[in-house]
C-alpha cells in the first residue's frame, strides 16, 4: 500500500471519545387512566438542570450554557457515573455560586484518591475544550495561516500524535493533544473501574 494518496499536510485523526452520560427521561404521557408509577414520575419530572435538557441546542444563549446540575451529596447519587455527576455539580456550585465570586476548594469526601484524580482529569480535559473554542473566536481566528507553528519564545513544540513527532500548526497541536488526552482518559484499558 502506498502513501501517495495521503496529503503530507493532513494530520492523523484520532477516534472520537465515547459520548458523555445523560439522564434518561421516561415517557411523558400515559394512556387514558394509566400511570407509570412513582419512579417514572421522578424521571419524567426532570427539571431544567438535568443532563439531557442541558444539551446545547442550536440558538442557545451563552449565558444558558453554563448551567450545571443541582448539588446532590455523593452518598445520595445512585448511578453508574455518580462521581462524574458529582464533580460536575460541585464545579458548577463552587465556580458559579449565587451572589458570590469566590471559588472554594473542592474536597473529595471519602472517595479513593486515585479515582478522584482520574475523574478530575477527565472533567478538566472536557473543560479545556472551551479554551480551544475560544481560539476560534479570536480576531483573526486561530488557524494554520495565523499560527503556523506551536511556539513558546524560541521553543518549538513537536506534536507527539504523529509518528515520528513533527511540527503542527498551533490549533492542530492543541486539538491533537486534547484528543489524545480525552482518548487516553476514556479508554477502557486505562479506566480505574477495571
TrEMBL record:
<keyword id="KW-0479">Metal-binding</keyword>
<dbReference type="InterPro" id="IPR036703">
    <property type="entry name" value="MOB_kinase_act_sf"/>
</dbReference>
<feature type="binding site">
    <location>
        <position position="147"/>
    </location>
    <ligand>
        <name>Zn(2+)</name>
    </ligand>
</feature>
<dbReference type="Pfam" id="PF03637">
    <property type="entry name" value="Mob1_phocein"/>
</dbReference>
<feature type="region of interest" description="Disordered">
    <location>
        <begin position="1"/>
        <end position="69"/>
    </location>
</feature>
<keyword id="KW-0862">Zinc</keyword>
<protein>
    <submittedName>
        <fullName>Uncharacterized protein</fullName>
    </submittedName>
</protein>
<feature type="binding site">
    <location>
        <position position="142"/>
    </location>
    <ligand>
        <name>Zn(2+)</name>
    </ligand>
</feature>
<dbReference type="InterPro" id="IPR005301">
    <property type="entry name" value="MOB_kinase_act_fam"/>
</dbReference>
Amino acid at each position: 500500500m502506498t502513501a501517495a494518496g495521503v496529503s503530507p499536510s493532513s494530520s492523523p485523526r484520532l477516534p472520537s471519545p465515547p459520548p458523555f452520560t445523560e439522564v434518561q427521561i421516561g415517557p411523558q404521557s400515559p394512556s387514558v387512566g394509566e400511570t407509570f408509577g412513582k419512579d417514572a414520575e421522578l424521571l419524567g419530572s426532570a427539571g431544567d438542570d438535568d443532563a439531557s435538557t442541558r444539551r446545547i441546542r442550536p440558538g442557545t444563549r451563552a449565558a444558558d450554557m453554563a448551567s450545571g446540575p443541582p448539588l446532590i451529596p455523593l452518598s445520595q447519587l445512585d448511578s453508574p457515573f455518580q462521581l462524574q455527576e458529582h464533580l460536575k455539580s460541585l464545579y458548577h456550585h463552587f465556580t458559579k455560586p449565587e451572589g458570590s465570586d469566590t471559588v472554594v476548594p473542592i474536597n473529595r469526601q471519602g472517595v479513593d484518591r486515585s479515582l478522584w484524580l482520574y475523574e478530575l482529569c477527565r472533567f478538566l480535559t472536557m473543560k479545556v475544550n472551551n479554551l480551544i473554542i475560544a481560539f476560534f473566536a479570536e480576531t483573526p481566528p486561530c488557524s494554520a495561516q495565523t499560527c503556523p507553528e506551536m511556539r513558546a519564545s524560541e521553543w518549538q513544540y513537536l506534536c507527539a500524535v504523529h509518528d515520528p513527532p513533527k511540527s503542527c500548526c498551533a490549533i492542530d497541536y492543541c486539538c491533537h493533544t486534547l484528543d489524545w488526552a480525552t482518548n487516553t482518559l476514556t479508554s477502557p484499558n486505562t479506566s480505574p473501574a477495571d
